[in-house]
Amino acid sequence: MQLEGKTVLLTGGSAGIGRELARQLKAKGARVIVTGRNRERLDFMRAEGFDARAADLSNAAGVDALVAQIVDEDIDVLINNAGQLVDHDVRKGTPDADAADDCIYANLSAPIRLSTALIERLRSRPEAAIVNVTSGLAIAPAARQPVYCATKAGLRFYTLALREQLKGSTVRVIEALPPVVDTQMNAGNPMKKMPAAECARQIVTAIEQGRYEANIGMTRALRWAESISPALARRITLRF
After folding, report:
1. pTM score, two decimals?
2. Residue 52: what are its φ and ψ, rounded to 5°?
C-alpha cells in the first residue's frame, strides 16, 4: 500500500506504539487522525500537527461518539491499536471485575464495533486496510494476564475470520503481533522490551508491503514454537 495521501484513523495514538506509528505514518505522507483519553497527550500530538480526537473506547457510547466525530472523513486505513492492561491475578486476591470488563471492551469489543461502523466506508476506497494490533500473547497466554491474553486472542480470531470475509475486496485485514514493548503500559514488566519506534516501524512496513501478519521481535520465535507444538508455546509463556 502506498501510504502517501491516505487518511489513517489510529486509536490509542497519543502514547507508546501508537504515538510512534502516528509519527512514522505522517513521515510517509499520510494524514493521521489519532485518538486518546489523556488531554495533555492529545494536546502534545496536536502541537506536532496531528488531528487528535478525545475518545473513550472502553464502552459503546465512546466508540459511537468517535464514529460521529469522523462521519465526513474518507478513511483509508483503520488501525485498532488502543488497548488496556488489567491486573487480574487471583493469587493476589479478588480481581476487580469492573476493570476486567473495561479491558474486555477496549481491547476486543471496541475494535469490532469500530470496524463494523467503518467497513462500508473502507470498502468504498480504492485501497484500504484494517490493522488490528494484538500481541504475542494472542498465541499463548501469560498466567499473570489472563484477561488481556483472552482479549488479544479473541481479536486475533476475529481478524482471521474478517480477513476471510473480505477476501477479494479492496480491504486488506492485517494483524500485528508485538512482543513486550517499552511503553507506559509495560513499565512494571521486568522482561526485555522492544523500543516502541522499532515496533511501529515493523507495523508500517507490513502495511506498505501488503502483508497479512506482522510477527514482531520475539513473537517470531513464539510463532515458530507454536508451529512445532502449541503446548510448547504455552509452556514458554505461562511462566510469566
Report:
1. 0.93
2. -110, 125
Average pLDDT, the chain: 93
> The domain spanning residue 131 has which CATH number?
3.40.50.720
| Burial (CB count <10 Å: 0-12, 13-18, 19+), residue 40 | exposed
Q: Is 105 a catalytic residue?
A: no
233 three-state secondary structure = helix
Question: Is the backbone of residue 32 left (phi > 0), alpha (psi -120 to 50) or beta?
Answer: beta
pLDDT digits (tens, 9 = 90+) for 170-208: 999 999 999 887 666 655 665 677 899 999 999 999 999
Q: Which domain holds residue 148?
A: 7-237
Buried b (16+ CB within 10 A) or exposed e, 146-176: bbbbbbbbbbbebbeebbeebeeeebbbbbb
- Which residue of the set 105, 148, 158, 212 is catalytic? 148
Enter the C-alpha cell of residue 3.
501510504
Please indicate, yes or no, if residue 102 is contained in any of the structural domains: yes
Residue 2 falls inside a structural domain:
no
Bigger pLDDT: 183 vs 43: 43
